[in-house]
Amino acid sequence: MIAIHQVAVALALSALVATAAFGAERGHAKRIRWLFNGAGVGALAANPASSAILAGARPYVMRGPRVSGAPVEWDAIAFVSFAKFDAMREGLRNGKVGPEIRGVMYDYEKWQFTPQEEQANPAPYIKKAADLVHARGLLFLTAPALNLVSVMAPQSGVRKYETFLRLGLAAEAARYADVFDIQAQGFERNPELYADFVRRAAEQARAANPKVEVLAGLSTQPSGQEVTADEILNCIAATRDVVDGYWFNIPQPSEYCPRCREFRPDIAVEVLRRVSG
Asked: I want to staple 104 with a disulfide (CB 3.0 to 4.6 A). Which of 77, 133, 149, 220 is the partner?
């Protein structure tokens, strides 16, 4: 059944690429919702073409040490991100989240920034985080990483994304969220796998919460992999009908992306240009 599904995805992908330009609407009623973070925000803002494309797009923009804001013309929705519950609770309690912030993300992964307990059993922390954020009238965003399955089911013996879905992690993350991101960017070089994971995770998420806004992850260098604009556009073409938008990460070499080797905002600019037609 999986093989048949993958063939169907490949045929649909070929048809999309062959018959349609990557226009902003491309027959879809809604404009793509984007999410940007880090130095990529400044790079896109500094480029006249990409900045003009994002005018009025209302992207989510993560505030942080390297991002103080976005151009007014974007009409961006500012949010902050935390990788552990205690830091989120402390930030909200001590007034570190300013009045301009409209959302809070819980970005829990198998990495040094999320405590082991939250990696192994995130469900109660998601609920507590959602209650905390919603009590302040803010949007709650979740972004569970695929590598959590290495902690929760280390001996599964199957593809990580199959285990991710079997464990119900998409449903778990979306149940109390306003925005849920599917961290599928690691599959960008294989658009059939990317589409299969995104479609099934989106379906699981919406079954748990029909109102959740679903994003899929994209990256100019996912965990250090070299990718092209064409590969990213193929992933968009294969999933545009099942997601509301994309978290487009433009990483730099850092402790958050130790395998990254260079900063490639040019790839993101090209993707935005071609998506917009």
From this structure: 133
